[in-house]
Specification:
With 115 residues, this protein is an all-beta fold. It is 0% helix and 51% strand. It contains no helices and 11 strands. Strands 2, 4, 5, 6, 9, 10 and 11 form a 7-stranded mixed β-sheet that branches. Strands 1-3-8-7 form a 4-stranded antiparallel β-sheet, with no helix packed on it. 30% of the residues are buried.
Amino acid sequence: VQLQASGGGLVQPGGSLRLSCVASEITLGYNAIGWWRQAPGKDRERISCISTSDGKTRYADSVKGRYTISRDTATNTVNLQMNSLRVEDTAVYYCHTSRLGRDYWGQGTLVTVSS
């Protein structure tokens, strides 16, 4: 599968952005699709994921209550709605999935939160 991430940009603190991850094929049978981020000088961290089978979601504590992950199975898309953005949310955001021990990453989209 190929993953195409988009939607990043520059936003002021308190603002919102919506990221999208489009998969090149149906992802049923793959592990959960997740959004990760990597801030400058920090390790990549998983912030949210959604099951490809039943749509169950999970969030890191740092984004819980502010971010919402959703999926559109008709278009093989997973979205990440990000609200109440903070300066510390600045990072490159990646979507990811895996199957049979192989990882698949999108190309990353930069989110900059700054006044």
